[in-house]
Records
---
Amino acid sequence: MKKITINRLILKTMNYSTLKKTVALSVVALMAVGVANAQMATDSTKMSSDMSSAKVFGGIGQFNHWSVGLNVGVNNPVVNFTQNAVTHDQTELGYGATVRDQLSHFFGLELSYQGGKVEGNDAGYGPGEKYGYYGFSTTNNQVTLNALLDFGSVSFGHRQNAVDFYGTLGAGLAYYKPSTIATAGAALVPYGNTVKELVAPIGVGVKFKLSDALALNIGYTVSIIQGYNFNGLHTVATGGAAPTAFDHYSYSYAGLEYTFGSKAKKNVDWVNPIAMMYDELYDAALRAEVEALKGRVTNVETAVADLKKDSDGDGVPDQFDKCPNTPAGTVVDGSGCAIVFPKPDTIKVGAAAATVATAPYSNIQFEFDSSVLRTSSYPVLDATSADLRSTGKTLTLAGYASSEGTAAHNMKLSKDRANSVKTYLVNSGVPAKHLKIKAYGETHPVADNSTEDGRVLNRRVEFHQ
């Protein structure tokens, strides 16, 4: 009986050894294919961009983001960074399937199934086995919901990723049946009914792009069972140590993952948001709009410069300058015309000369259809200004016009003439509040408008107190 058990154990060990080698070789081969295809995918993206239809902040709907995966690997009860139920590991076949929705470039949700056997055996390693028994065998099926954190979406070195690193963290339920070998050479003793416990898987992985829809997926997951009987500890023999950590096992796997969706859309796993942003900023239509905006700004700047242009440097822009090309240093009024300050008129009597002062408040005459002051009017205006400044009087400047043209035009012309007189007086020091404007147009003529002499007299500004 003992000889048959030992032979079965040797045969089983040989089968597991062969299985481990086969799985390892398969993983290496798949990795080599994945790396080669990833390199080809990376090189092809150097020649062209295939993300022209995707936009920054365009939403996950512009990508394919639902995928399914199948994987196979090995389960192992020994995890190096925690307390283990057995001293020596014994690998068993594991398998799994996933359904994933990648909600963004960085985060996704994954529904995962994981199954297979987990076994440990310290038989043949001397007395004092770790927990008072020689081994265990547990058949496990678990379903978990995992959060997937993507570390490889953003790349500053390539337009499109071909290798994607990620991590997972989840929670769910494990349904398992443990059995224990209590003494050397004994058969497995089943626990009984199927046990249901909470399970929390933590893992890391890497995907290699085989095509836009298909990827090679390699990973490592540690599942922590929220109980103490997964590894057979319900049959701890007398003298065995009590556990101080939850039961656990690891799953190393390789598999394929397929992403569903339209061929017109890209797989979100392989889209680099940095490249998307770069392409959108350098979009041809956007650049054309920017160039057009630059042109409009240039036109506005040119127009403003034209408005400010002052060819003769008299301080009055060209478009408002009624007397262009005045000599440098000339004192001008608001219309750009020179202001002349004449000396008082003199009358010679024999060898002597008598000074005759110009009378203020005389009518100011204008040329036909003009509101520009004559230089001959300056003496009267200067005398009027001096009197107003000394007396503080308030005057009404009444503007008139001859009868040529329409009544509306002549009304505006008479107002412009009165404003020209006011501007001169204000510039000479008369307070603006002491001067009022009244326009009469072609009404109230002082001479006959049917003659030129009469019309000349009617083109005037009068001072009314």
Note: Residues 2-45 form the longest helix (44 residues).
---
Amino acid sequence: MISINKLSKKYNDKFVVKDIDTMFSLGKVTSIIGPNGAGKSTLLSMASNLTNSDAGEVLIADKPLAQWDSADLAKRLSVLRQSNNINMRFTIRELVAFGRFPYSQGRLTKEDNDIIDNALSHLNLNHLQDRYIDQLSGGQRQMAFIAMVVAQDTDYIFLDEPLNNLDIKHSVDIMTTLKKLAVEHNKAVVIVIHDINFASNYSDNIVAMKQGELIKSGTVQEVIQEAVLSNIYELPFKVQEIDGKRISLYYQP
């Protein structure tokens, strides 16, 4: 489990994240939601040691984040950032193989290649593995980056807006894969996401933020409520339950 205690970050004396308390559990998908500027990506970045916090503490498996060696941390926690720009020309398989670097240091073993094969299979990329990244559609490219994270085979997987600019099919494929990773492989999957209904349908827990503060953290049933969402987004929300899933309506005439 990752435990976040009173985590804060300031830029120019303004809080972008303030006194956040939450946790990310193994075997669960946790979505972080909120409007632009809520501090979602900053929270994820601090929890993964990519950004220093000004106050508070992050515990990974009961050990403070500051005490983790970077090489050991890379075997426990993987991160897919919002922007992934690669200037060199790689095939999908070569990209996914980067996920094994914390273990192989570039010298791939049979075990590494087996894990790469499994990651490609998870994302249904086997038939495309020899194609170059610049030959792919946006959805295929995002699937390849997620396969790289899957190949890293960590207990904790952080993804910052993995559904950006994807069509519905690729979004469903990715969220289904991430849910399987959490449930079948006991991983803690944490996602910054804007689509409320994807968060509701594929998450176990939701962290809702606004202007750097935690508004509500809990199960889907606890967070996906009309009053909570209306407060966060400053829009009238209507929440309906369909086949046991909470669907949010927020369209105005």
Note: The mean pLDDT is 94.
